[in-house]
Automatic annotation (TrEMBL):
Source species: Candidatus Venteria ishoeyi
UniProt name for this protein: Glutaredoxin
Family in the record: Belongs to the glutaredoxin family. Monothiol subfamily.
Molecular function GO terms recorded: 2 iron, 2 sulfur cluster binding; disulfide oxidoreductase activity; metal ion binding
Keyword line: 2Fe-2S, Iron, Iron-sulfur, Metal-binding, Redox-active center
Keyword Transit peptide: no
Domain of life the protein comes from: Bacteria
NCBIfam families found in the cross-reference section: Grx4 family monothiol glutaredoxin
Ranges of residues in domain Glutaredoxin: 17-81
Keyword Lipoprotein: no
Binding site for [2Fe-2S] cluster: C30
Amino acid sequence: MSDVLERIDEQVKSHPVIIYMKGTPKLPQCGFSSRAAQALQACGLPFAYVNILSDPEVFQNLPSYANWPTFPQLYINGELVGGCDITLEMYQNGELKPMIEAAHAAQEDKPEES
């Protein structure tokens, strides 16, 4: 199990914005994942995603990674933001886009690892 948790940790830390979802942003496989991905897309900035349905190990172990039992899961700057409801609420009140912009800016400011 530790291998998959290390892989999740690497994904979360190497992308300024990543969503673990059922399906893909273009072909979501559940309504919650669809709405969360739409909110991210509406912000107009790139984000990474992992289709948990195509990776059973991630599907089984992600809930224990950040102690969050449901999907989708949105991470910004390596921190769990939350699921669909929190993502939508942050989008609707104008908090999501500035948070994503700040995450991208912080990623650009990181020194290159050798």
